Amino acid sequence: MIKQKHVAFTLVASLFTIAACSSGGSGPSSSPGKDANSGKKLEVSVSILDRGQVASDEGTYENNRVTKYINEKSGINVKWVPVLRTESTKKLNTLIAAGEAPDLMWEFGRDYMATLKEQGAIQPIDDYIEKYSTSYKAYLKAHPELKPYTMFDGKTYIATSARGIDSIANHGIWIRQDWLDKLGLKMPATMEELVNVMRAFKDKDPDGNGKNDTLGAAFNFNYTGIIQAMYAAHKGVWYVENDKIIIGGLTDRYVDVLAQLKQFFDEGLIDKEYITDKNYQKERQLFVTGKAGVYFSSWNISPEYRELKQNVPTANLVPMEPVSTKYGKFGLYQEPPANRLIVFNKNMKNPEAAVKLLDWWIDKNWFDVRFGQEGVHYKMVNGVPQAIDAEKNKKEILYAPEYAVLDQYSPKPEDFTVMAAQDAISQEYAKKQGESLTVAMKNKFRRDIPFNPTFAELSELSTSFSPLAEDIETKVVTGGAQYTPQWGMEQLRKEWKRLGGDNVDKLAQDWYQKNVKGK
Prior knowledge:
Bact_solute-bd_prot1, SBP, D-Maltodextrin-Binding Protein, domain 2, alpha+beta, single chain, three-stranded antiparallel beta sheet, signal, 15 strands, Extracellular solute-binding protein, 21 helices, 3 domains
């Protein structure tokens, strides 16, 4: 998965999202998982993304109401190994190097799993699935579209489930409709119109306080992918150009991305500290306090929406479609169909326990983990779980979907108003959320090949190239007229070549011919 998503996207970004059951929950019970030889409960360790969402009185990521529920209902003793979300792959690499990695590790990026495979850190799982699985094996047969995402060199290394539409959608653009109305502006449809709207938001006092204190837009460095997508030049995606593949950050179109960001910066349409706002706190604050008219973020921004309405009750925030550029109109980043990618540690001692846990999750137990105790956290309305108390759920089970590792949840836009708590702000946002999901999926993100090439030489080059590219791009955007977008592209291509890019490009083309074009 793309880096922007790693840093910014949350699985539980809504006012009403409801999650796991308590240990006394009403979810279906399973036969206890027992070791066939010893009669003891099976044991397995699993990584879990630590997003800092477990309240102190709820416990920790290792021990909370959700972990207790899973251990009780699955009959398997699961040891959870938290990894900080913003440093997840770095932490997993450290654990692997120390021989302390959990039995099951999961992430969203297939590229990362390919790296683990090349390092010999993980193992094929075909034999384990065939020997120990019933439910997951049947699920794979029913979802053949997932197969390409699970395999390397003809063997299955990854377990996964299908993404719901709400997790295929990723980025989103929001705009202050009340500001448009006040200034007599229409919804922008082209990049030129968007720039003009941002200028008006900056210069024409849209909040009416008589001060020059508003910005055209708020976004941080991690959401530059929104601009990249609108130019069909996402820096982390490979494109097919004249029957050859090329990484997005080296395409001619990427020059236009750099030029667009430079224009935003030079004209003061965005906060000039956005590049250093790595945790998004300053940009977020600008938006929720009503000082930015456009918000480049996720399609689902429930916490920010609530804060904005508390600070500016008259704000009318609406989702906005991506705008067209001279290259046409393209959707914002959308994820591939495979959800979390789960791999088996090569040093795993009990693969049976791991497979039994996969079976338990896929047997609809993911629902009980994600949506909580019926009558406590939700009630069923027309087949949809409806939150009873949004604040209670936020405290008790906001973190729970992280544990629904083989989640199959896929809401329809109209479900959100049913699912949400019935207070006014929750219902107001739920309607906006449904509209935003529809907008996010309306335009197709340009993805020429289903997944990126993966091989050791590319991983090594990327490790060295990425920080250099970030420095070059920062210089182009912030360094004034002497650092043109054209200069920046020359430097990017020069560094790529210096680090072995010619060989990597050849290997990538060979990979494309073998794995994509030749299929």
